[in-house]
Amino acid sequence: MREELRELWRYRELLWAMVERELRIRYKNSVLGFFWSLVNPLATVLVITVVFKYVMQNGTENYSAYVLAAYLPFIFFQICLMDSAQSVLQAVPVIRKVYFPREILPLCTVFANFIHLLMALAVYFLYLFVLWAVTGFETSPFTWTIGFLPFLLVVNLALATGMSFLISAYNVFYEDVKYVVGVALYLMFFLTPVMYFSDTVYYAAQSRGMTWLYYLYHLNPVAMLSTAYRKTLVPTGKIEVVPEPGSAPQQIYMLEFDWALFWATVATSFLLLVVGYHVFNRLKWRFVERP
Amino acid sequence: MSEVMVDVRDVKKSFLSNRSGAASLKTLLLWWERKKKLETIEVLKGVSFQVHKGECLALIGRNGAGKSTLLALVARVYKPNGGTVQTFGRVAPLLELGAGFHPDLSGTENVLFNAMMLGLSRKQARERVDKIVEFSEIGAHINAPVRTYSSGMQARLGFAVAVNVDADILIVDEVLAVGDLAFEKKCIEYMEGFKAAGGAILFVSHNMDSVQRFADRAIWLEDGIAVADGKPEDVIPKYRDTLLAPRK
User: Which has fewest Cβ within 10 Å: A41, A251, A289, A290?
Assistant: First the structure.
């Protein structure tokens, strides 16, 4: 693996050039460019907020901020994996003719999407700032917890990269992989605290004496990351949950951050990165020979 | 003998063939179907040769003899199943001119990217853009998207990039027949200069006249085995004779 990393490092400039090219191609023929990529998340967040706040009548303040904080990383993860499924496969005609480290292909997809996430987060902060300014700079929405954000992004990047390595490599040989990934990501959206809170899952499990369900739920590493993003980006406030089945909804503070679960997620992410890279390297010479 | 630039030793390469086409989970799950449909095809059965500084080696042989596979192995597109392939210096593969061009990007953008794909740094690529564009003779069209180019223009641009990356070894797979006569002449002049400057050329051709004129040595491949290796004037007649004779 060391040898492979060194080779990859030699080709780093090509990787950057490819990321640049990817971003340029994506918006070459559209006027609004980057802002189109914001339309989807903003529209989704708007709809989720309207449904949960006014139809389901959840009284949490700043509901849209919680949804946005979790949805931006989620959509990064989703698009990243969908794109990477095709990344190697569509480049097969090129890698049949020219040599360069094949890892560059999925990495390019991940990095291009990651840059999108960063730009989207910048817009998010801008939005918070405007809200703050409108209320006359009363209570600052920026808390010291934002300092955790870079670390969280690195973990998220590791997880996405590891998964991309696996998916892009296997999709070359079994094109069914991309359909499986599509379905899995769709279902994952419901099993990740984006529209709701992981606290709700906890209370629902605990009140039935099945706290283990809460841990089972967190086998999905994106679930923990989602909650972590919320804790990092949204200032601590009360959220509305139903602690007991049948009881009235209550406004309470979010659960304490579960560090043990969080570190387990971090470990899973980096493990997936190493495993993914290993698998990719084992398969990469056969990409051009796909039957 | 002078310095060795390409060293191929007892190289073996085989492929799995799948007659049903695309791979799918079905072939993974139904192992009996896999057994039925996959067979190993041995394309190269142990080929050895060396190309030296300033030498031009031609590979000749029938379709399917393994010539292109051999070139791809030297270009590091494939990994051999047995034996070793070593190259000393930068390799410019001309297996397909303009491989990796993106249709929506301009000629200049594609030149920059392609030059980096062949191993130049960003800085080196930038410095060479003008020279490459000049060589390709594309002129003002260089800022238009590549999808608007004719196939001849794309090939010219691809060739121009490949020959301007300071390669030490040129690998050419019958690609020079795409430009017009003037451009072909330019390519041939370039390759002669390249050889004189100490570069090594490895090429595949079905055109025996160009093999005769260009190559210092020719290898005749038949069913993955080098059956003859020597001066073109000795190898070509042998190959011609079997071509004309009915195949056993």
Answer: A251
Decide if B115 contacts B78 (C-beta within 8 A). no
CB contact under 8 A, B93 and A98: yes
The two beta strands, A238-241 and B169-173, are unpaired
Count CB pairs under 8 A between chains A and B: 75
What SS3 state is found at B107? helix
Q: For residue A83, what pLDDT is reported?
A: 93
Contact between chains at A21 and B76 (C-beta distance less than 8 A):
no
Q: Which of B159, B151, B198 is nearest to B175 (CA)?
A: B159
- From CA A124, how far away is CA A71, in angstroms rounded? 11
> Do A48 and A67 meet the contact criterion of CB atoms below 8 Å apart?
yes
Coil vs helix vs strand at A89? helix
Q: Which of B27, B116, B174 would best serve as a mutation to test chain A binding (most A beta carbons within 10 A)?
A: B116
Pick the closest to residue B187 from B208, B214, B168 (CA basis). Answer: B214
List b or e across A171-206, with b for residues whose CB sees 16 or more CB atoms inside 10 angstroms.
bbbbbebbeebeeebeebeeebbbbbbbbbbbbbbe
Identify the DSSP state of B139.
Answer: G
Rg (CA), chain B: 20
> What is the chain A residue with the closest CA to B22?
A291
Sequence-ordered alpha helix ranges (H) in chain B: 25-29, 31-37, 67-74, 107-117, 122-136, 151-162, 181-196, 208-214, 232-244
Helix residue ranges per DSSP H, B94-215: 107-117, 122-136, 151-162, 181-196, 208-214
- Residues of chain B contacting A7 with CB distance shorter than 8 Å: none
**How many other β-carbons are positioned within 10 Å of the β-carbon of residue B107?**
26
- Residue pair B103/B145 in contact (Cβ under 8 Å)? The answer is yes
Q: How far is CA B226 from CA B43, B49, B65, B213, in A?
A: 12, 9, 10, 21
pTM of the model: 0.87
Residue B90 region, left (φ>0) first, then alpha (ψ -120 to 50), else beta?
beta
ipTM value for the complex: 0.82
In the β-sheet with B82-87, what is the strand arrangement from edge to edge?
Answer: B38-52, B4-18, B82-87
pLDDT in tens, B114-143: 999 888 889 999 999 999 998 888 888 889
